[in-house]
Structure formats: C-alpha cells, structure tokens
Amino acid sequence: MSSSWLAGIAFTFFIALLGYLLAKVPGFDHVGQLACAIILAVVYRQFFGYPEMIRSGITFSSKRLLRFAIILYGLKLNIDTVFHDGLGLLLRDAGVILFAILLTIWLAKLIKADKNISLLLAVGTGVCGAAAIAAIAPIVKSKDEDTAIGVGIIALVGTMFAIAYTILRPILPLTAVDYGIWSGISLHEIAHVALATEPAGEDALAIGLLAKLGRVFLLIPLCFIFMYWMKRKRQEQEAPETKIEFPWFLLGFILMSLFGSYVLGHSIPVSEEFLLGVSTITTWCLTAAMVGLGLNVSLRDLRTKALKPLIAMLITSICLSILAYFIV
User: Phi, psi at residue 259, to the nearest 5°?
Assistant: First the structure.
C-alpha cells in the first residue's frame, strides 16, 4: 500500500470529520453531516486546488467506499416490513417516483438544463436522495463532479423542505399518521423524513419511515430499468457490442437487505447498538466518499451547469409536496 493512497483516504475522512463537527454548530445542525462535508470539500478545492499527490486515495474513497456504503445501506431496508405493512404505500411511492423523474426531465428539457445533473436530481428527488444518486451515477456514466453537485443540491434542498414541513405541520389539517405518510412519500432523504416527523410523535415517525423505505425498495428495480435504458441508448448511438458494466454493488445492496430482513434479529440475534454501529459506519463511509466527489467540483462549472437543474428540481419538489398532500 502506497503512502499517498492511505493519505488520500485519510484526507477524505478528515474532511468528513470537519463536516461532522460543522454539523454540530447551530444553524448547520439541520443541514447535516453529508452536506457540510461536501461544502467543505468544494471550498477546499476552490482555495487550494485538487490535492494531486493523494489522488489515488481520494479516488478510492469516491469509488470503492461509495459502493461499500451503498451495500451497507441495504441493512436499512427491511423488505419484510415493506411487503407486510407497506403495500398500499408502495403503490403511492411508485407513483411519486414516476412523477418526480418525468416532471424533472421534462422541465430540464424545457429550460435547457444540464441533462446529466437533472437526471441525477430527478432520481434523488423521487427515490431517496444521495443514496439513489450514488447508485444511479455509475449506471448512467455520470462524472464525479456532476454526482457531487447532485448530492450537494439534494442534501441542502431536502433539508430546507424538511424544516418547512415542521413549520407547516401545526397549521395543516392532517392527523399525525397522515402527516407521516405525506412526509415519507415526498421528502428526499431518510434523514429528512426523520427530521420532519419526529416532532409529530412516534406514530408519524414510524409510518413516515415505512413510506420512505418503500421508495428505497423501489430503487432496486429502478436501477435495472436504467441499465436497460442505457444499453438501448448506447446501441442506438454506438456499436451494438458496447456494454454497460454491471453494478455489482447493487447485488450487495439486495443481499444485505435480505440478510437484514430475514436473518439479523431472527437466526442471528443482534443488539440495537450493533445496528447503530453499522449505521454509523455507513454514514462515515458515505460522507468520506462524498468528500472525494466534492473535491472534483469547480465553482465556475457549478454556476454554469447547476442553476437550471436546481430550478427544475425545486419546481418538481414543490409539485411533489402538493401532489403527495392530496393523495395521502
């Protein structure tokens, strides 16, 4: 192992640690560790440039650690619970995902926004934020820079929406359960759903997370749909033998979901502390990976490429919140 490789990985975790500490500061506490770390990585790049000497380790974090985090993320998805208690919610989740992706892509085309960033934001808005973007990005051959921009935008906008939900909750004519469903089928990240529903009580939180887990579950078939779509697209544009690399980490995600749903806690008893530990490792690996991606972001490109996709995603998010409110 080269020292530059280890130094690069250590550097991404160091920025991740700074992001974690920044997220503890009042005002940034609602933004979250992930978004704070990406902001710090982007700021570092603008002032000090890309640290070329440790590129190999940073690349390892942004590629390999990212896939590892997605595999571990599978443990958050209890397939058994989704099938037993959330089938009705699953139908609404599917409708929400379809609506978000189609509307964002249509708006992006209308205002001539960057296609790749808009697609990533469409998937992040419809499914489950950063995890969905990270899963789809390698399938659609997204640049690291575009992936980082998409994740940063989804984290920040999703946080703003979650805070807005908590402000609106007391004045909306919704029961705690209905409010939880509304949050679960319309907010961007699992963390955003938790942030919005926790003040409404345990029932709202439980049903909100269940609704959100349905969207996470639908990430699996969505990835395969995108694989098929990319294969067709490449066959039309290039030679028929062009192949798309199979996202093996997606199989790991599915296996971990099955393992967590039917083995952990059943055949293998585990404590809450163990699950919390795995969740913490997942968060840190994902944050370090996002730091690696964030270091690729040029603010000059951000101004020219990200504004229009952001507008398309904001309009979609508002429309999605209104639609979800009426189908609760």
Answer: -60, -45
